[in-house]
Amino acid sequence: MAGYIENMRLSHATGTIFCAGALLIGRIGVGHASDLPMVRTITAQQLRSAVREATNHVVLLHFWATWCRPCREEFPALVRLVKTYPTPFFRLILVSADAEEDLAEAAEYLARQGLQEPSYLALRLNDVFIKSVSSEWSGALPASFFFVPGRGLAKWWEGAHAYETYAETVEALIREQGGMLR
Amino acid sequence: MNRRLSAMAATALLAGALKVTAGIGIGDAPPMSDVKMKNVDGKMLSIKEAAGPKGLLVVFWCKHCPFVKAYETRMTALGNETMEKGVGVILINANDAAAYPEDSWENMQNQAKQSGYRFPYVVDETSDVARAFGAGRTPEAFLFNAEMKLVYHGAIDDNAQRPEEVTKSYLRDAVTALLEGGEIAVNKTSSVGCSIKFRKQP
Known about the structure:
Chain A is an alpha/beta fold. Chain A has helices at 2-25, 44-54, 69-84, 103-113, 127-133, 163-176, and strands spanning 39-42, 58-64, 90-96, 119-122, 143-148, 152-158. In chain B, the strands form 3 sheets. Chain B has a 4-stranded mixed sheet with strand order 2-1-5-4. In chain B, strands 3-7-8 form a 3-stranded antiparallel sheet, covered by helices on one side.
């Protein structure tokens, strides 16, 4: 419990820093057709490595698709999340379930949403791929998986959620990781 | 937020990490099997009536979903073959057509005709049948044996986008095993699909 309180104190400090950071870093996203974000194809195995490599942050691994209406409806919440909780505290890894042929369409969608960060498009997004992310995920979209350093998958859900739900979750996990995010 | 509240929030967050999925499991009977649903031929049909002597294949289906479109040819072929072999087939559209006009009954009729379905394709007008099955997306398959026990639930195969690169035909293999009395090696698979747009409950 002592350790926990110490973490809380640290998290107050980090909270202040990253609020200031958010103001400074706050990206202005204007997507130009000629300036599309990079969307790379990724296999289940490559994605596992990418998540593993990224977990010195709180990571949100998010599956979506341009054809998925609930995904599109909640997408502004994700954009706001990235802008509110910038690296090194938080990282959003987007994985599109669009067909490989629709890669450009996915990139254009991301640009229109104001996201310039590189992201992925899942190759062979089948039972094996889905189970490699979580044995409990049915495959429904959108799907969100929160990873924290040292503990792996901390929370996940299927279906669209409000910005507040995302923000509360990210914030609680960042706070939990307070000591490690200095 | 004070510290105690933060701690409680963190605990609640972690406790919520596991999600329980409702619906039927392997060995269960099809729920709401007496409910009559409108078929594309205009007649009313229940799940029980759609069953064949050797079993029943229920697939949650629709028109608008790109994954359904990707499986249209494969589903038509497998559905028609399965019917001929004595396993009943019924496709169910549980999407709220008010939200997805492309999933209207008229469009379903065209879809069935163009693809050449020789099996029923019905509307779940309340989306309650889908809810009772625990179906969440399209396409999502449920295969029952002659005793009307669920023997397979999940994906059609392991490659939605590229039929030529399919290595595991889960549903076809399950149907074959059912007909030949063999064991269904993989009885539950996950797949990406379009979330069913459930009609609101009154």
